[in-house]
Amino acid sequence: MTKPLTTMTMKFWAATATAFALLCAAQGTARAQNVQAADFIVALVNSEPITDAELQAQIKQVKEQRTQQRQSVPPAAELRGAVLERMISDRAQLQLARELGLRADTAAIDQAEANVAAQSQMDVAQFRKLWEQRGISSASFRAQIADQIVLNRLHEREVESRVRVSDVEVDNALAARQAANTDPLAQEINLANLLVALPDNPSAAQIAQAQAKAQGLLARIRSGESFEALVKEQSAASRDNGGQIGLRRADRYPLIFVNATQSLPTGQVSEPVRSGAGFHLLKVVARRAASLVQTVEQTHARHILLRLTPQLTQAQALAQLTQLRQRILAGSTSFETAAREFSQDGSAQQGGDLGWSSPGMFVPEFEEALDRLKVLEIGMPMVSRFGVHLMQVLERRSAELTPAQLRDAMRAELRAKRAEEAFQNWERDIRSRAFVEIRESQ
Fold first, then answer.
1. 150 in a domain, yes or no?
2. Considering the domain boundaries, does residue 439 fall inside one?
Protein backbone atom coordinates (compact mmCIF):
# COMPACT_ATOMS: atom_id res chain seq x y z
CA MET A 1 0.00 0.00 0.00
CA THR A 2 3.01 2.28 -0.14
CA LYS A 3 3.61 4.77 -2.88
CA PRO A 4 6.11 7.64 -3.35
CA LEU A 5 4.56 10.94 -2.29
CA THR A 6 4.90 14.41 -3.72
CA THR A 7 4.78 17.63 -1.74
CA MET A 8 1.71 18.90 -3.54
CA THR A 9 -0.13 15.61 -3.09
CA MET A 10 0.62 15.50 0.63
CA LYS A 11 -0.60 19.07 1.05
CA PHE A 12 -3.77 18.24 -0.85
CA TRP A 13 -4.70 15.22 1.22
CA ALA A 14 -3.61 16.75 4.51
CA ALA A 15 -6.05 19.60 3.90
CA THR A 16 -8.95 17.45 2.69
CA ALA A 17 -10.98 17.35 5.90
CA THR A 18 -11.01 21.10 6.47
CA ALA A 19 -10.36 22.73 3.12
CA PHE A 20 -13.31 21.23 1.26
CA ALA A 21 -15.69 21.77 4.17
CA LEU A 22 -14.66 25.37 4.76
CA LEU A 23 -14.59 26.04 1.03
CA CYS A 24 -18.35 25.52 0.98
CA ALA A 25 -19.15 26.84 4.45
CA ALA A 26 -20.85 29.93 3.13
CA GLN A 27 -22.73 28.68 0.06
CA GLY A 28 -22.13 26.90 -3.22
CA THR A 29 -20.20 28.73 -5.93
CA ALA A 30 -22.51 30.36 -8.45
CA ARG A 31 -21.16 30.17 -11.98
CA ALA A 32 -21.89 33.03 -14.35
CA GLN A 33 -24.64 31.20 -16.21
CA ASN A 34 -26.56 30.70 -12.97
CA VAL A 35 -26.26 34.29 -11.71
CA GLN A 36 -29.30 35.90 -10.12
CA ALA A 37 -30.72 38.94 -11.90
CA ALA A 38 -29.35 41.26 -9.19
CA ASP A 39 -25.83 39.82 -9.53
CA PHE A 40 -23.08 41.55 -11.45
CA ILE A 41 -19.57 40.87 -12.74
CA VAL A 42 -16.65 42.08 -10.60
CA ALA A 43 -13.80 40.74 -12.75
CA LEU A 44 -13.08 39.04 -16.05
CA VAL A 45 -10.31 36.48 -16.31
CA ASN A 46 -9.54 35.77 -19.97
CA SER A 47 -13.18 36.71 -20.70
CA GLU A 48 -14.52 34.37 -18.00
CA PRO A 49 -16.49 36.31 -15.39
CA ILE A 50 -16.20 36.28 -11.62
CA THR A 51 -19.47 37.52 -10.17
CA ASP A 52 -20.22 39.42 -7.01
CA ALA A 53 -22.21 36.42 -5.74
CA GLU A 54 -19.13 34.22 -6.06
CA LEU A 55 -16.92 36.83 -4.43
CA GLN A 56 -19.28 37.44 -1.51
CA ALA A 57 -19.61 33.68 -0.94
CA GLN A 58 -15.83 33.33 -0.74
CA ILE A 59 -15.51 36.37 1.54
CA LYS A 60 -18.13 34.92 3.88
CA GLN A 61 -16.32 31.59 3.86
CA VAL A 62 -12.99 33.22 4.78
CA LYS A 63 -14.62 35.19 7.58
CA GLU A 64 -16.22 32.05 9.01
CA GLN A 65 -12.98 30.13 8.74
CA ARG A 66 -10.97 32.81 10.53
CA THR A 67 -13.65 33.15 13.20
CA GLN A 68 -13.66 29.39 13.80
CA GLN A 69 -9.88 29.44 14.12
CA ARG A 70 -10.00 32.54 16.37
CA GLN A 71 -8.06 34.63 13.90
CA SER A 72 -8.60 38.33 13.28
CA VAL A 73 -10.51 39.35 10.16
CA PRO A 74 -8.81 41.99 7.96
CA PRO A 75 -10.64 45.23 7.11
CA ALA A 76 -13.39 44.77 4.54
CA ALA A 77 -11.57 46.39 1.61
CA GLU A 78 -8.35 44.49 2.30
CA LEU A 79 -10.20 41.19 2.65
CA ARG A 80 -12.18 41.76 -0.54
CA GLY A 81 -9.05 42.52 -2.52
CA ALA A 82 -7.17 39.48 -1.20
CA VAL A 83 -10.06 37.10 -1.83
CA LEU A 84 -10.67 38.44 -5.32
CA GLU A 85 -6.98 38.11 -6.19
CA ARG A 86 -7.02 34.49 -4.97
CA MET A 87 -10.09 33.77 -7.10
CA ILE A 88 -8.48 35.37 -10.16
CA SER A 89 -5.35 33.27 -9.73
CA ASP A 90 -7.32 30.05 -9.24
CA ARG A 91 -9.56 30.81 -12.22
CA ALA A 92 -6.55 31.37 -14.48
CA GLN A 93 -5.03 28.08 -13.31
CA LEU A 94 -8.28 26.18 -13.90
CA GLN A 95 -8.45 27.59 -17.41
CA LEU A 96 -4.92 26.33 -18.07
CA ALA A 97 -5.88 22.93 -16.69
CA ARG A 98 -8.81 22.72 -19.09
CA GLU A 99 -6.54 23.65 -22.00
CA LEU A 100 -4.21 20.81 -20.98
CA GLY A 101 -7.12 18.37 -20.80
CA LEU A 102 -6.93 17.81 -17.04
CA ARG A 103 -10.14 16.56 -15.50
CA ALA A 104 -11.30 15.19 -12.16
CA ASP A 105 -12.72 11.73 -12.75
CA THR A 106 -15.79 10.58 -10.87
CA ALA A 107 -13.83 8.02 -8.84
CA ALA A 108 -11.45 10.68 -7.51
CA ILE A 109 -14.34 12.97 -6.58
CA ASP A 110 -16.16 10.07 -4.88
CA GLN A 111 -13.02 9.22 -2.92
CA ALA A 112 -12.47 12.79 -1.74
CA GLU A 113 -16.12 13.26 -0.80
CA ALA A 114 -16.15 10.00 1.15
CA ASN A 115 -12.99 11.02 2.99
CA VAL A 116 -14.45 14.37 4.01
CA ALA A 117 -17.61 12.66 5.22
CA ALA A 118 -15.75 9.93 7.11
CA GLN A 119 -13.46 12.44 8.77
CA SER A 120 -16.59 14.24 9.99
CA GLN A 121 -17.82 10.86 11.32
CA MET A 122 -20.65 10.65 8.78
CA ASP A 123 -21.44 8.60 5.74
CA VAL A 124 -21.79 10.33 2.38
CA ALA A 125 -25.60 10.48 2.54
CA GLN A 126 -25.52 12.13 5.97
CA PHE A 127 -22.86 14.54 4.82
CA ARG A 128 -24.82 15.59 1.73
CA LYS A 129 -27.93 16.10 3.84
CA LEU A 130 -25.97 18.37 6.18
CA TRP A 131 -24.80 20.61 3.32
CA GLU A 132 -28.25 20.64 1.73
CA GLN A 133 -29.60 21.93 5.04
CA ARG A 134 -27.08 24.75 4.70
CA GLY A 135 -28.32 25.52 1.21
CA ILE A 136 -25.52 23.77 -0.68
CA SER A 137 -26.40 21.24 -3.34
CA SER A 138 -24.47 18.01 -3.72
CA ALA A 139 -23.57 19.05 -7.28
CA SER A 140 -22.13 22.35 -6.08
CA PHE A 141 -20.08 20.70 -3.35
CA ARG A 142 -18.73 18.09 -5.76
CA ALA A 143 -17.88 20.83 -8.27
CA GLN A 144 -15.72 22.49 -5.61
CA ILE A 145 -14.01 19.17 -4.92
CA ALA A 146 -13.43 18.65 -8.64
CA ASP A 147 -11.80 22.08 -8.95
CA GLN A 148 -9.43 21.32 -6.08
CA ILE A 149 -8.48 17.95 -7.57
CA VAL A 150 -7.82 19.53 -10.96
CA LEU A 151 -5.68 22.27 -9.40
CA ASN A 152 -3.72 19.65 -7.48
CA ARG A 153 -3.06 17.65 -10.65
CA LEU A 154 -2.05 20.81 -12.50
CA HIS A 155 0.43 21.75 -9.76
CA GLU A 156 1.92 18.27 -9.78
CA ARG A 157 2.29 18.28 -13.56
CA GLU A 158 3.57 21.83 -14.02
CA VAL A 159 5.61 22.30 -10.85
CA GLU A 160 6.17 19.28 -8.64
CA SER A 161 7.21 16.88 -11.39
CA ARG A 162 9.95 19.29 -12.51
CA VAL A 163 11.61 19.69 -9.12
CA ARG A 164 14.86 17.75 -8.88
CA VAL A 165 17.30 17.35 -6.00
CA SER A 166 20.60 15.62 -6.81
CA ASP A 167 22.67 13.41 -4.51
CA VAL A 168 25.41 16.04 -4.57
CA GLU A 169 22.98 18.68 -3.34
CA VAL A 170 21.89 16.40 -0.50
CA ASP A 171 25.52 15.72 0.45
CA ASN A 172 26.34 19.42 0.42
CA ALA A 173 23.29 20.31 2.48
CA LEU A 174 24.08 17.67 5.10
CA ALA A 175 27.69 18.80 5.35
CA ALA A 176 26.65 22.43 5.59
CA ARG A 177 24.06 21.68 8.26
CA GLN A 178 26.57 19.79 10.37
CA ALA A 179 29.16 22.58 10.13
CA ALA A 180 26.76 25.48 10.50
CA ASN A 181 26.17 25.72 14.24
CA THR A 182 27.91 29.11 14.31
CA ASP A 183 26.34 30.39 11.10
CA PRO A 184 23.54 32.90 11.86
CA LEU A 185 21.65 31.73 8.77
CA ALA A 186 21.61 28.16 10.12
CA GLN A 187 19.94 29.14 13.36
CA GLU A 188 16.25 28.62 13.80
CA ILE A 189 14.37 31.76 14.76
CA ASN A 190 10.79 32.84 15.23
CA LEU A 191 10.17 36.51 14.46
CA ALA A 192 7.01 38.51 15.02
CA ASN A 193 6.34 41.23 12.46
CA LEU A 194 4.57 44.58 12.83
CA LEU A 195 4.31 46.23 9.42
CA VAL A 196 3.65 49.87 8.62
CA ALA A 197 2.76 49.53 4.96
CA LEU A 198 3.83 51.70 2.03
CA PRO A 199 1.95 52.01 -1.27
CA ASP A 200 3.55 51.08 -4.57
CA ASN A 201 5.96 53.79 -5.76
CA PRO A 202 5.63 55.86 -2.58
CA SER A 203 6.51 59.53 -2.50
CA ALA A 204 9.20 60.91 -0.22
CA ALA A 205 6.46 62.32 2.04
CA GLN A 206 4.74 58.93 2.31
CA ILE A 207 8.04 57.24 3.18
CA ALA A 208 8.80 59.82 5.85
CA GLN A 209 5.30 59.51 7.30
CA ALA A 210 5.48 55.70 7.47
CA GLN A 211 8.94 55.79 9.03
CA ALA A 212 7.79 58.28 11.64
CA LYS A 213 4.82 56.07 12.48
CA ALA A 214 7.10 53.03 12.86
CA GLN A 215 9.43 54.99 15.15
CA GLY A 216 6.44 56.10 17.19
CA LEU A 217 5.23 52.53 17.59
CA LEU A 218 8.72 51.42 18.61
CA ALA A 219 8.80 54.15 21.26
CA ARG A 220 5.46 52.93 22.62
CA ILE A 221 6.79 49.37 22.80
CA ARG A 222 9.95 50.45 24.60
CA SER A 223 7.86 52.42 27.05
CA GLY A 224 6.04 49.25 28.03
CA GLU A 225 3.14 48.76 25.61
CA SER A 226 2.50 45.23 24.36
CA PHE A 227 4.03 44.40 20.99
CA GLU A 228 1.25 41.86 20.40
CA ALA A 229 -1.48 44.40 21.18
CA LEU A 230 0.03 46.90 18.75
CA VAL A 231 0.27 44.22 16.08
CA LYS A 232 -3.43 43.54 16.45
CA GLU A 233 -4.19 47.25 16.38
CA GLN A 234 -1.73 48.60 13.81
CA SER A 235 -0.03 45.97 11.65
CA ALA A 236 -0.70 45.80 7.91
CA ALA A 237 0.71 42.25 7.83
CA SER A 238 -0.76 39.15 9.46
CA ARG A 239 -2.12 39.92 12.91
CA ASP A 240 -2.54 36.30 13.92
CA ASN A 241 -0.68 35.06 17.00
CA GLY A 242 0.91 38.41 17.67
CA GLY A 243 2.32 38.65 14.16
CA GLN A 244 4.54 35.58 14.61
CA ILE A 245 5.94 34.24 11.35
CA GLY A 246 6.92 30.89 12.87
CA LEU A 247 10.03 29.00 13.92
CA ARG A 248 12.18 28.29 10.87
CA ARG A 249 15.77 28.36 9.70
CA ALA A 250 17.04 31.90 9.37
CA ASP A 251 17.88 31.38 5.70
CA ARG A 252 14.14 31.07 5.07
CA TYR A 253 13.64 34.65 6.28
CA PRO A 254 14.49 37.75 4.21
CA LEU A 255 18.15 38.55 4.76
CA ILE A 256 17.28 42.07 5.95
CA PHE A 257 15.18 40.51 8.75
CA VAL A 258 18.09 38.28 9.82
CA ASN A 259 20.61 41.12 9.75
CA ALA A 260 18.34 43.37 11.77
CA THR A 261 17.73 40.83 14.54
CA GLN A 262 20.81 38.61 14.72
CA SER A 263 22.34 40.55 17.62
CA LEU A 264 19.06 40.99 19.51
CA PRO A 265 18.27 38.80 22.54
CA THR A 266 14.98 36.96 22.73
CA GLY A 267 12.09 39.28 23.48
CA GLN A 268 13.70 42.42 22.03
CA VAL A 269 12.37 44.48 19.10
CA SER A 270 14.45 45.81 16.21
CA GLU A 271 14.71 49.31 14.84
CA PRO A 272 12.37 49.88 11.85
CA VAL A 273 13.49 47.79 8.86
CA ARG A 274 12.64 49.06 5.36
CA SER A 275 11.45 46.61 2.70
CA GLY A 276 9.41 46.94 -0.46
CA ALA A 277 6.27 46.48 1.63
CA GLY A 278 7.02 49.19 4.18
CA PHE A 279 8.68 49.51 7.58
CA HIS A 280 8.87 46.44 9.84
CA LEU A 281 9.31 46.20 13.59
CA LEU A 282 10.65 42.72 14.30
CA LYS A 283 10.47 40.99 17.68
CA VAL A 284 12.68 37.96 18.39
CA VAL A 285 10.24 35.42 19.86
CA ALA A 286 12.59 32.42 19.95
CA ARG A 287 16.07 31.46 18.80
CA ARG A 288 17.88 28.13 18.82
CA ALA A 289 20.81 26.42 17.17
CA ALA A 290 19.93 24.39 14.10
CA SER A 291 20.61 20.68 14.03
CA LEU A 292 19.95 17.71 11.84
CA VAL A 293 16.69 15.95 12.46
CA GLN A 294 17.70 12.92 14.51
CA THR A 295 14.36 11.35 15.35
CA VAL A 296 11.10 10.64 13.59
CA GLU A 297 7.65 9.88 14.96
CA GLN A 298 6.68 6.31 14.05
CA THR A 299 3.24 4.73 14.22
CA HIS A 300 2.28 1.12 14.88
CA ALA A 301 -1.15 0.55 13.35
CA ARG A 302 -3.47 -2.10 12.00
CA HIS A 303 -6.32 -1.96 9.53
CA ILE A 304 -9.07 -3.84 7.75
CA LEU A 305 -9.28 -3.22 4.01
CA LEU A 306 -12.26 -3.85 1.76
CA ARG A 307 -11.46 -3.49 -1.93
CA LEU A 308 -14.17 -2.06 -4.18
CA THR A 309 -15.61 -4.26 -6.91
CA PRO A 310 -18.72 -4.18 -9.09
CA GLN A 311 -20.30 -6.33 -6.39
CA LEU A 312 -19.13 -4.13 -3.47
CA THR A 313 -19.72 -0.42 -3.88
CA GLN A 314 -18.04 2.26 -1.84
CA ALA A 315 -21.26 2.97 0.06
CA GLN A 316 -21.67 -0.72 0.90
CA ALA A 317 -18.06 -1.03 2.06
CA LEU A 318 -18.41 2.05 4.28
CA ALA A 319 -21.61 0.67 5.79
CA GLN A 320 -20.06 -2.77 6.34
CA LEU A 321 -17.00 -1.39 8.11
CA THR A 322 -19.12 1.00 10.18
CA GLN A 323 -21.11 -1.97 11.48
CA LEU A 324 -17.90 -3.92 12.07
CA ARG A 325 -16.48 -0.99 14.05
CA GLN A 326 -19.57 -0.95 16.25
CA ARG A 327 -19.19 -4.68 16.92
CA ILE A 328 -15.53 -4.24 17.89
CA LEU A 329 -16.33 -1.33 20.19
CA ALA A 330 -19.16 -3.33 21.77
CA GLY A 331 -16.78 -6.23 22.43
CA SER A 332 -18.65 -8.80 20.36
CA THR A 333 -15.52 -9.37 18.26
CA SER A 334 -11.90 -8.26 18.31
CA PHE A 335 -10.13 -6.15 15.74
CA GLU A 336 -7.64 -8.95 15.12
CA THR A 337 -10.38 -11.53 14.54
CA ALA A 338 -12.33 -9.20 12.25
CA ALA A 339 -9.22 -8.42 10.22
CA ARG A 340 -8.45 -12.10 9.68
CA GLU A 341 -12.02 -12.76 8.61
CA PHE A 342 -12.79 -9.74 6.44
CA SER A 343 -9.65 -7.85 5.40
CA GLN A 344 -8.59 -8.15 1.77
CA ASP A 345 -5.01 -7.12 2.43
CA GLY A 346 -1.75 -9.01 2.88
CA SER A 347 -1.78 -8.06 6.55
CA ALA A 348 -4.98 -10.02 7.22
CA GLN A 349 -3.20 -13.10 8.57
CA GLN A 350 -1.41 -10.86 11.10
CA GLY A 351 -4.71 -9.46 12.30
CA GLY A 352 -4.31 -6.43 10.08
CA ASP A 353 -1.01 -5.48 11.73
CA LEU A 354 0.97 -3.05 9.55
CA GLY A 355 4.01 -2.91 11.83
CA TRP A 356 5.92 0.28 12.54
CA SER A 357 5.73 2.98 9.86
CA SER A 358 7.61 6.24 9.36
CA PRO A 359 6.16 9.35 7.66
CA GLY A 360 5.87 8.87 3.91
CA MET A 361 5.43 5.09 3.93
CA PHE A 362 1.71 5.17 3.17
CA VAL A 363 -0.35 7.09 0.62
CA PRO A 364 -1.22 10.58 1.88
CA GLU A 365 -4.92 10.07 2.54
CA PHE A 366 -4.25 6.97 4.66
CA GLU A 367 -1.34 8.55 6.54
CA GLU A 368 -3.26 11.73 7.27
CA ALA A 369 -6.14 9.72 8.75
CA LEU A 370 -3.68 7.74 10.90
CA ASP A 371 -2.11 10.94 12.20
CA ARG A 372 -5.47 12.17 13.50
CA LEU A 373 -6.09 9.08 15.63
CA LYS A 374 -5.15 8.80 19.28
CA VAL A 375 -3.41 5.66 20.53
CA LEU A 376 -5.88 2.73 20.70
CA GLU A 377 -8.58 4.77 18.94
CA ILE A 378 -10.48 3.05 16.12
CA GLY A 379 -11.30 5.63 13.50
CA MET A 380 -14.35 5.89 11.28
CA PRO A 381 -14.01 4.06 7.96
CA MET A 382 -12.07 6.07 5.38
CA VAL A 383 -11.52 5.81 1.64
CA SER A 384 -8.16 5.58 -0.09
CA ARG A 385 -7.19 4.77 -3.64
CA PHE A 386 -6.97 1.12 -2.55
CA GLY A 387 -10.45 0.79 -1.09
CA VAL A 388 -12.14 1.42 2.25
CA HIS A 389 -10.21 1.05 5.53
CA LEU A 390 -11.00 0.63 9.20
CA MET A 391 -7.85 1.51 11.14
CA GLN A 392 -6.53 1.58 14.68
CA VAL A 393 -3.35 3.11 16.10
CA LEU A 394 -1.75 0.69 18.58
CA GLU A 395 1.22 2.80 19.73
CA ARG A 396 3.59 5.57 18.76
CA ARG A 397 7.28 6.16 19.38
CA SER A 398 10.17 8.41 18.49
CA ALA A 399 12.85 6.52 16.60
CA GLU A 400 16.37 7.61 15.74
CA LEU A 401 16.89 8.10 12.05
CA THR A 402 19.36 5.91 10.21
CA PRO A 403 21.91 7.60 7.91
CA ALA A 404 19.74 6.66 4.94
CA GLN A 405 16.69 8.18 6.59
CA LEU A 406 18.64 11.34 7.39
CA ARG A 407 19.46 11.66 3.71
CA ASP A 408 15.82 11.10 2.80
CA ALA A 409 14.76 13.76 5.31
CA MET A 410 17.23 16.26 3.91
CA ARG A 411 16.17 15.47 0.35
CA ALA A 412 12.53 16.00 1.32
CA GLU A 413 13.39 19.31 3.01
CA LEU A 414 15.28 20.57 -0.03
CA ARG A 415 12.58 19.35 -2.38
CA ALA A 416 9.80 20.99 -0.34
CA LYS A 417 11.62 24.32 -0.24
CA ARG A 418 12.40 24.22 -3.94
CA ALA A 419 8.86 23.15 -4.82
CA GLU A 420 7.38 25.99 -2.79
CA GLU A 421 9.62 28.55 -4.50
CA ALA A 422 8.90 27.05 -7.91
CA PHE A 423 5.18 27.07 -7.25
CA GLN A 424 5.14 30.72 -6.22
CA ASN A 425 7.07 31.71 -9.36
CA TRP A 426 4.83 29.57 -11.56
CA GLU A 427 1.68 30.97 -9.96
CA ARG A 428 2.84 34.56 -10.51
CA ASP A 429 3.65 33.74 -14.13
CA ILE A 430 0.19 32.26 -14.78
CA ARG A 431 -1.42 35.29 -13.17
CA SER A 432 0.70 37.75 -15.19
CA ARG A 433 -0.15 36.06 -18.49
CA ALA A 434 -3.90 36.17 -17.84
CA PHE A 435 -5.95 39.06 -19.21
CA VAL A 436 -7.75 40.44 -16.17
CA GLU A 437 -10.29 43.23 -16.10
CA ILE A 438 -11.34 44.44 -12.64
CA ARG A 439 -14.71 46.16 -12.57
CA GLU A 440 -15.90 48.61 -9.95
CA SER A 441 -18.44 47.43 -7.37
CA GLN A 442 -21.99 48.38 -8.23
1. yes
2. no
What separation in angstroms does the CA of 362 have from each of 301, 368, 384?
A: 12, 9, 10
Q: Which residues, including other chains, have CB under 8 Å from residue 50's CB and lie 6 or more apart? A: 41, 42, 43, 44, 84, 87, 88, 91
Residues 221 and 302 in one domain: no
Contacts of 273 (CB under 8 A, 6+ apart): 256, 257, 260, 279, 280, 281, 282
Domains in the chain, number: 3
Q: Which long-range contacts (CB under 8 A, 24 or more apart) does 323-330 make?
A: 324/390, 325/378, 325/380, 325/381, 325/390, 328/378, 329/378
pLDDT in tens, 351-382: 999 999 988 788 888 988 899 899 999 999 98
Do 284 and 304 belong together in one domain? no
- Give pLDDT, residue 169: 94
Buried residues in 230-263 as b, exposed as e (16+ CB within 10 A): bbeebbbbbbeebbbbeeebbeebeeebbebbee
- Reported as a single tens digit per residue, the pLDDT across 40-80 is 999 999 999 999 999 998 898 888 877 776 777 888 999 99
The torsion angles phi and psi of 437, rounded to 5 degrees, stand at -120, 115
Residue 427, pLDDT above cutoff 50: yes
DSSP string, 39-61: --EEEEETTEEEEHHHHHHHHHH
Whether residue 86 is found in the same domain as residue 152: yes
- The region, left, alpha or beta by phi > 0 then psi within -120 to 50, assigned to residue 86 is alpha
Write out the residue range of the structural domain in which residue 332 sits: 295-400
* Cβ atoms of residues 180 and 292 within 8 Å: no
> For position 282, which CATH number holds?
3.10.50.40
H or E stretch covering 409: helix 403-433
Helix axis angle, 314-330 to 335-342, nearest 10°: 150
36 with 12, same domain: the answer is yes
**pLDDT at residue 244, as a whole number:** 92
Nearest-angstrom CA–CA distance, 49 and 404: 51
Half-sphere exposure of 315 (CA within 13 A, CB side): 4
Q: What is the tens place of the pLDDT at every residue in 141-150?
A: 889 889 999 9
